[in-house]
Amino acid sequence: MLLPWTYVEILDNIYLIGFEFEADNDEEQLRLRFHGDEGLFPGGTDLPYNGQYPQLDKSDLRSRMIMGREGLRNAFRLLGMARTLQDHKYYRKCNLVCDLPYFEAPRFVKLESFIAKNYETEAGITLTKRHVGLANCWVKYSRDIVLNTEGKGEAMLICEKLF
Question: Is 57 among the domain residues?
Fold first, then answer.
């Protein structure tokens, strides 16, 4: 696979932030806090929401939504407060921040596999200009996966033109 750590890396942040919030006191929580690229899989990058859910874009929940570790920290903190449970808007927003990485994660395994097949050459993995086209149609791959096009979707047509 092109990026074998991606699926686990996305979920990594959720587990780490949850682990921090299990601490008994503030001092222990600070001691357990992971910073920068520290974590179970250091060096990975956050894969934040980037506007691929049309209904979410129309929703008031999308306004000022912070993703990544900082967003998760805030969401966990707010979910632990009684008043958040009484304010449905904040409760839904916090849940969405925690859930989005789970919604996204399964797509990456299929996408990586699809792209990796097209990167393989006899000499191994070689990146050329035509691979930019593959990377640029991420949304189309996602749509094909959701629609279960079985290799007959828009992304495959682009792939055939590139190769």
Answer: yes
